[in-house]
Amino acid sequence: MSEVTDLYAWLARSACQQYHANFVKHDITFDLLSDLDSDALRELGVLKVGDRIRLEIAIAELKLATLKKKVPLKEIREYIEKEQVPIKRVPTSEKALLSPGATTSRIVTFILPDGSLLKVNVEGCFSAQLIKKKVLKKLGVHDDDNEYDTFVHMNVSGDIKISSLYDVEFVTICFSPDRPEKHRIMLTPKNEAPTPTATAKSLRIVQRLSGKKPTNPSIRSFFGQRPPSELISSNLGEYFPTAGLHALETTIRNSVRHSMRVLRRFNSSSSVLNVLLGRPSITSEERWYRGVHQQRTIGDVLVHNVTMLDEAKISSDRSNRHSRIELMNVESENEDEDNLSEALDEFDFCGGKKWLQGARIGAGSFGTVYLGMNPMSGELMAVKQVPIPTGSSKQNEVHRSMISALQREMAILKELNHENIVLYYGLSSDANFLNIFLEYIPGGSVQLMLHLYGPFEEPLIRNFIRQVLVGLSYLHGVDIIHRDIKGANILIDIKGIAKISDFGISKKVNTTDEEKSNDTTGKQAKRASLQGLVYWMAPEVVKQTAYTKKADIWSVGCLVVEMFTGRHPFPSFSQMQAIFKIGTHTRPEVPKWCTIEGQDFLNKTFEFDYSKRPSAVELLADSFLAPLIVSDTDNEKRSAPVAL
Prior knowledge:
Blueprint: H1 3-13, H2 20-25, H3 38-43, H4 49-70, H5 73-83, H6 92-97, H7 100-103, E1 107-111, E2 117-121, H8 128-139, E3 148-156, E4 159-164, H9 167-175, E5 185-189, H10 196-210, H11 229-233, H12 236-239, H13 245-277, H14 284-289, H15 298-313, H16 333-346, E6 356-363, E7 368-373, E8 380-387, H17 394-413, E9 424-429, E10 433-439, E11 443-445, H18 446-453, H19 458-477, E12 480-481, E13 490-493, E14 498-500, E15 507-508, H20 511-519, H21 523-529, H22 539-542, H23 550-565, H24 575-583, H25 596-605, H26 616-620, E16 628-633, E17 636-641
Parallel strand pairs: 1-5
Antiparallel strand pairs: 1-2, 3-4, 3-5, 6-7, 7-8, 8-10, 9-10, 11-13, 12-15, 13-14, 16-17
Keywords: ATP-binding, Kinase, Nucleotide-binding, Serine/threonine-protein kinase, Transferase
Domain SAM: 2-65
Family: Belongs to the protein kinase superfamily. STE Ser/Thr protein kinase family. MAP kinase kinase kinase subfamily.
């Protein structure tokens, strides 16, 4: 077949044989086809976009075929197979991280500057730029991919050092099936070193793979949840591995003295009251469980344990019942009590690191949460540690604005004091971190409980929702909108007390602000509408028309659906699809198996007109939250409210 015929046949395969004469006229031979581009085709008279696209695809296929002829792929493949070294057996600890499904996949784990992990499927991304673009897109960041570098810990001559990755090495690691580095790549803004939080996270992964004990381990779970204070008190060395023996002994001594002093004050005041009322004094067991302290310290636990031991032995000499605490010097108690009182009164969180750091509890979008302890009273705390950025990149500017917002919100929230709200003790900061001190809640979130145990029964849902609404009524009473009510932000302690947490995007408003938000949709309204996940958002928030206290009520309804089903509302939709559904007045699906009272309660919370939506106080009077009498009638369980 002649060259002209080859050219004609090639054009005919793309239904472009009408351009054959133009190609011949310009002396375009079959060998020159691979050099043509879009501009050249346009000059050859291929003006239709469809024809030009088909020819460009055919030219690309021609280039690939030519490349295969020039490169001996078969010989290269045989050479690689012959020279390939068998892969060593993966250690057990490494198998846990690199599961059989993950070793052959294209899932890469990135460590962000705040220490959080982001898993990205890099399938189809064959360059460093494309991989970074996909990571930034998943983060919702619109920066240029060239503004970010990648780092990884490497073993250099027996030492673990941080190495910057070149693009070729970065892509190689991402697509390697057995490189452990692909599960700990640190993503950092251009010309900046990895943050201490990201570095520590990467080192923990390296140490876990090598079988070494991490220097800052995560807190051991207690049946999948946060351990109670009693367990922590009896294992301080395990939960505070870096605190040091002297610091722990001093803290125990201070805490025991503090608890004994409070107990004596309670005994003296209760004795006077009992004499006046003519009542016998209550036992120490009752004293502790009637709430001498709402939050028990390390000293509370130790003193309580000794008291119970003495009462079990029916000791006649009760004056020596605290002698079993070896770290407590009873003779020096009185002389040191005044000094301890002054130290407790002067203790605050504004003077730097005046707290003992324990094991890591968890990590979030803002930073890492550690177990902490007040060295003066022995009170346990959850300390959220947020890294303070030092560079000048766009991401750091956004991070600084978030820290400023956190500081403003904490200034409001530290004044709150309610049983159903996680307490905020205060803030402190140093050169690298902002520390937020919160109440330590043993147990776990509603989301964690749903994951561990599955959907809740309705009586349990009623109990938890009643407590959530009590907490919300308190918040709304002081003009605070939470704006992020969901299962992950409702903590349940080991006594079944529900506590509202995570006020990172909450807002203090007043009646005037709410009236303005009803009429305007300015910048603030737009910013507010973007807070939290859309699955729990009210319609007026999605449409950016208003953001009032009633938005929290809609979220409570979504929380009820989450408890009934174990999944968020609109579970089969993406966030964008959920926005469309909510914006077009589509209610979350009400579970068919809930009672009539439950369905009626959800219909009230899912009222589209927020002005007609009931308040938290009004919902507390709803029959759904009334105590239940459960009976079996015709093999069906029915519930009826009790008139109180």
